[in-house]
Queue: 4 jobs
Job 1
Amino acid sequence: MNRRRFTFGLAGAALLFPAVGLAQPRRVRIGVLSSATQGAAGPFDAFFQALAAAGWVEDRNLVIDYRFANGHLARHEPLAMELVALKPDIIFAPTQPAAIAAMKATKTIPIVFAIVQEPVLTGLADSLARPGKNATGMLSINKDILGKRIELLREVVPTAKRIAMLYQPDFDLNVRQVELGEQVLGSLNLTALRVGIGNRDSFDAAFEALAQARPDGALVIENPSVFANRAEIVKRMAVARLPAMYGFQPFTLDGGLMSYSIDFADQFRRTAGYVDRILRGATPGELPIQQPVGFQLTVNLKTAKALGIEFPQSVLVRADRVIE
């Protein structure tokens, strides 16, 4: 396993960001349970850069063990058990599936998460203010974000009447999200269409269902499988000529029409602060779970032109990033 896949010169980062408050950091082991694919760095760069700034640098005082679920929900639990067997000082499990799997594997090793939607409902914490268990981190709120995504999609496709929601039926979080989406769409007098999509072998059936239903737009509900296969999904959306809203900026960078999401780099950067505090002696159950503070609207003008869509000025002025 190449443990440098996510890093980008941590020793150099340490020079740019000198350690604060720790002259000689002790050597620690971090287990990283990623829902994504090996080599897909994404916001992990920001995480490791922030750790280096705090004085934790791989090959100096930090040992990192990675496990990758490659978008498969079922792989999280056995991978979490592998990490626990290595006896790390802390486990970084960014996503909800990863954090839940880690907590099932250990009740004692501290766990830090970065983009968890329902920590209390899923048993990761007793409350947001006082988690009370061995996990804490950052919350990825979905109620407000989901409604905002739908409103933005409607602004871009004002004539839309029927919106398809692509979700993973065997992922409880996705089911609750699609139920919430149906409520929001109903309040806007829009018809919601459920389209199940899981691992890559389900794509043909999902896009055949879209072709038959002929919706006016699509909302892709985020999950590990969708993210791992985002390039293929974006490609198929282009072939279907379907305007789609995504929950992760990388979809838009890869050619998707638009995305509205939390600022993942900022989220992971702030999460590194939790890891640092715990490594210095803080108890995860006493560290409050924080709300996200940064959000990003990204639009792709090239894709819009290919679809015959013109972004309204009201959307463009709010965009944090415009892909031309």
Job 2
Amino acid sequence: MGYGPTNDEESLAALTNARARGCTVFDTSNLYGWGHAEELLAQAFAGCRQDVVLATKAGYVDQDGRQDFSPDAIRRSMDGSLRRLRTDYVDLLQLHNPSQEVLEGNDGLFAALEMMRHEGTIRAFGISAASPDDALLFATRYHPQSLQVNFNLGDLRALHNGLFQTCRARDIGVIVRSPLAAGFLTGRLGVSDTFAATDHRQRYDAQMRARWVEAVRRLRPVFDDAPHATPAQNAIRFVLSFEAVSMVIPGMFCVSDVREDLGAASLPRLDAIRRQAVEAIYEQVFSQGAA
């Protein structure tokens, strides 16, 4: 769901390999595969639940995008996630793309989340925001333990709107999603690539794809301090170069993805001069707005 057909055996191999290589945090949602992703996590980590941190989400109630953030709906969603994950607690429960209006009109929601934490059903709660501006609003008006947000070499909104500084000041963890921009920052996708009908990447037009390709080309000299690193690894280490970032969650669909992505952890972080160079290229390539 989102990236076209997947293979369970390949997914399980990626999960177990990631765990063996030291990856301990796994982010999912009741929406992904409409619960099937959670079932795969349960299968992969049946014998080592205490050694992994499981983060899931709640808020979507059907595959058409309908949402319900009422306390009862969140509890029902959580019950389903616990059943599929085969566990009696989740380390992090995140509200999945709520609007500001929904949160303002839902007085009992945060009280319910606190109660679930008190009961031990969840260890912490956060918000997966639809945009960096939404995340900034949530950071200032509420106090989630974490905020999940888009951030990558082609989308610096979370850096420019003050979100990172706000989260550091308020001790809010930042979870970065889409560090590879749906694979377009790996250097392996081009303007003419085709995708499955159920793969959301088919919606990117030729102009946007061309900008991604151009960005990868222009960014190569910025990463000359790690000449053997791949574009994907450089994209991930860029994200990890900011102190406000608690963790990054790249999609890893097969074992080769796991090896490449986790290899970024041993690479040096970018210094201030290189980060400024990235920002300059970003302004040149994405001057019409971030993707």
Job 3
Amino acid sequence: MTVVVTGASGHVGMNLVRALMADKRPVRALVHVNHKTLEGLGVEIVEGDISDLESLTHAFAGADVVYHLAGVISLLKNEWPLVEKINVQGTRNVIEACRQNNVKRLVHFSSIHALQQEPLNIPVDESRPLVDGKRHSPYDRSKAAGQREVRKAMASGLNAVILNPTGIWGPYDYQPSFFGAALLSMANGKMPALINGGFDWVDARDVALGAMLAEKKAPAGSEYLLSGHWVSMPEIAKEMKEISDASITGFVCPMPVARFGAPFATAYSRLSGKRPYYTTVSLAALHSNHNISHEKATRELGYQPRPFRETLTDTLKWYQQNGDLKCRLK
């Protein structure tokens, strides 16, 4: 039973491919540009572009299951054309290619950012409405729009499941991802300030296993939150100091000050050619809901996220083995 993974060379994709291979599943990895990290794993590698329906139709031929992970993350407010092309139109193409090839099940990766966070004092679960309106960032709106496309397809008969993971850390983060780059910046002493905020973090390995459970167990049309543990930036720094000799700043910037300075920090990052960490979009995420419930996924699928300390330790160990980490682990 052939399984296709779009975005296979990305962070979650690398973990999912390995988990599928461990489950002795024949995997076809759809990649757009870089496939070096997939070489030697024993997977079938196919080049394609989710903005090109013809390439997807070719890639999905003979597939029974498609995991759709490919997408683009943006922390800026002026990138709607890009995120709309990849996260919305690309998802439409994936749906159409599944239909043309009679794919038996689509597992679509959305995001916690697709769901409204307010009210902040009530836990977020699968009943939360999708974000809408320009008060939300382009990325959030694009993930919500992509999720709506899958919902429409399910209503017309497509056998699909939707997953909404939270902030993802974990091994095999080669690029690295945005969250991984931020963690490395903190560990390598390059983050000038911590923010008095946090996020719900989940291990990429748990997300991969949760997706496989959803493929096998979930009723058609189901949606699941795959969350982990809410941990603040200062708490992450504290735990990092306990497991390494990282030289981490002790300065914690109040959220109002950070929000005031975010446009200037973003402009500086653009001019210097560096990836911006603290933008108005990322700061809004660090001030989002503290309680993201994975109760449904646990009850129906048996999903169990591992402790945050284990994720942090294993992630840093992997970066160390990959030559990205400058500090020493204890």
Job 4
Amino acid sequence: MDGRMLLFTGKGKLRRIALNAAASQTLSDNIPYFSSAIPFGPDRLLVSNHQNPGVIPWSGGTPHPIDRLYSWAQMLPGGRDFLYTIDDPQLGSQRARIATTDGNDLGVEVVQADSRVQYTASLRSEGGYLVYLRAGALLAQPFDLAGRRVTAEPKAITRRVPSFGSTGAADFSVSRRGVLAYQSYINRSQFIWVDRTGKRLSTASPAGISATYVRISPDGRWLAAAPFDIERGVPEIWLYDAVSGAGRKVVFGPHLTGPAVWSPDSRRLVYTAGRIWPRLSLISFDGTPDKEPLPDTGFMLPTDWSPDGRFILYHSSGLPSLTQGFSSDVFAIDMARNRRVIPLLNTPFQEYNAVFSPDGKWLAFLSTESGQDEVYMQALDRGNDSLRVTGERFLISRQGAQCLRWRKNGKELFYLGSDGQVMPCHSLLVPVECAPVSRSRFSPLMPKPPPPFTRLYPLTYPLMAAAS
């Protein structure tokens, strides 16, 4: 690589573009994401990610799978050796190795870290450095490239630089000639109670907890959030007292953890945990794990639990609007029928963040059916042995949406617009602004609304207040 070509992915395809070119070229039709790409022998390109590495011709084509993981591969000076980092589940950290492009072995281990490892040349000597993270500290360790060994203890450059668990990802980068870029992590989140005008009433958590997602327990007594631990590089699930704001940790460990959803009796939580792909797990209020595992269907993010406790909703892709190479569908787990998985929304569009109405008769969700992320709603048909959506699909939002919540009494559906404002759809106003949409195409505005929702108007308070 001579630094004059940029590789990137878009809509599930690997593309390249010269720095001064006006258009890009497709190299491969089935590489939705990658962590690194380096020359790998004559006229070949090693394209790495965390699960499916492959080699493609430099001219493009279908990747040829290889049986070794070479995550975060970096070509070293000389063009023969490369540095890569792999996750070691037993060690609980990353192992950095140096191998040759014309070989097929694991190479020589050079260092262990909490993140990917990069090599850079020294500006003051003929040696170089390995740069990586440990416990949130960005370190530079002197390294003898010819001897493939470290020559001194690492030195801290700065602290509070985030890494991201077993993925190896981290917020730093170094050039070949020793220029370093990094981003420090700042704890600046706090949950607060406000009224409908946005007036602050009281705090709901300590300050500086580094969390942006929260769910209120159905009994209104607790908040479940997943603040980020900068030293360990993973989110952890905490519960905060809704009155005092005092918190306690209920889920922690080496794995990435994700959003938690309450059971309707406020006694259990379903959440995600996994080294690479999130899977669903259950715990009780005191943090005791559930003895019976939930089904494993791949990437799983929980979004809601039905009011009667029978169904858990989840979707199958993270950030569906960004990961366009992956489908995002909505599923339900039937807790009363041996935890059977039921497909609910499975279309060519990205569908996610589904939530039950408080009476369990409607499903609200986000979809890209109109060409952008919007809120939709569809009726639910509940038989003795299954669950399915039925009837017309109705468009609720019109200028983009990010997430949604129902009011506890079912009279309002709140969503966060793309402009950051909270919007409710109210049941007591004139029925003029909800638009039914077919499953196959975006429909124009129609006068018939899905009961009980009718009209939209802006508010300025956060979504956590919507559940009260």
